[in-house]
Design a protein that fits this description.
The chain is α+β, with helices and mostly antiparallel strands. The protein is built from seven helices and five strands; from the N terminus they run H-E-E-H-H-H-E-H-E-E-H-H. It folds into two domains: 56 residues, no CATH class; 92 residues, no CATH class. The strands form two sheets. It has a three-stranded antiparallel β-sheet. A two-stranded antiparallel sheet has the order 1-2. The longest helix is centred in the N-terminal third of the chain and has 13 residues.
Amino acid sequence: MHYTLNEVDRHHQVNINESAPPVLIPKRCVCGKAATAKQLDQHSKCVACQLADRVATLQPEDLAILRHMVGATDHHPRSRWGFRNEYLCNHRDKPSMGRLMLAGFVIAGDAMLVLSPSDLRYFHATAAGCKLAGLPTKRASVALGARP
């Protein structure tokens, strides 16, 4: 199709007048922290508020299990935290694991005995779970599979 010069000029003029939506303009969340306009438009909360909402769904015993899962307990030196990242869940801990999984802090691993009625299953902490358990960045990377 052949365009006349006027149509081409009009097309370019429209492109020049259009601008991208201001997604990276810094705005403030309701908590007072800075967040991008895109973040607030999509989620209506900053990242810190989203994390706080996810943590609020947990109970104290859930956090104790998460810390035990990554070896972040008082009887282990802090320099060794993150040496493991697995937890064999039995029927007693299933509600806690369900809450941690819904919040995105753990993922389900392999079942230990598939034919067993107790359905023993391994769970592993995610990066957000390691952060919530209090692991430093280096120890979190070790827990997630990096070599020490």
